[in-house]
Amino acid sequence: MGSFFDIFNGEHRNCFKLILDEDIKIDQVRSLLKFLGQSVFSKNIKIVMIDNAEYLNLNSSNALLKALEEPGDSTFFFI
């Protein structure tokens, strides 16, 4: 699937990393949702890392909620 460092750095095709020091905008969450809708590169696993989740604004939180409530079988969220 790739090295641990590729995944940790968000550089693997099956990994989406969202790390910010300010408000997480709705467009960024939409990019995440688009990623979740794409087919996987290998091993049928998707990894989503969201750091500083406290920076999600109301609209971003609402957009992310459905993905968190109904993740794919092989989707893993680290928040």
Lay out the secondary structure.
Layout: H1 4-8, E1 15-19, H2 26-37, E2 46-51, H3 58-69, E3 75-78
Parallel strand pairs: 1-2, 2-3
Kindly describe this structure.
The chain is α/β, with parallel strands linked by helices and 79 residues long. The protein is 37% helix and 19% strand. The chain is built from 3 helices and 3 strands, in the order H-E-H-E-H-E. It has helices at 4-8, 26-37, 58-69; strands at 15-19, 46-51, 75-78. The chain has a 3-stranded parallel beta sheet, covered by helices on one side. Helix 3 (58-69) links the parallel strand 2 and strand 3. Helix 2 (26-37) packs parallel to helix 3. The longest helix has 12 residues, at 26-37. It is globular, with a radius of gyration of 12 Å. The model has no long low-confidence stretch (mean pLDDT 77).
* Estimated radius of gyration: 12 Å
Strand percentage: 15-25%
Q: What is the helical fraction, as a range of percent? A: 25-40%
Strand order of the largest sheet: 1-2-3
Mean pLDDT over the full residue set: 77
Number of DSSP-assigned strands: 3
Q: What is the N-to-C succession of helices and strands?
A: HEHEHE
Please mark out the parts with pLDDT under 50 across 5 or more consecutive residues, or reply none: none
Characterize the largest beta sheet: strand count, sense, and whether it forms a barrel: 3 strands, parallel
Structural class: alpha/beta
Number of helical regions: 3
Compute the separation of the termini in Å: 21 Å
Which shape, going by the Cα principal axes? globular
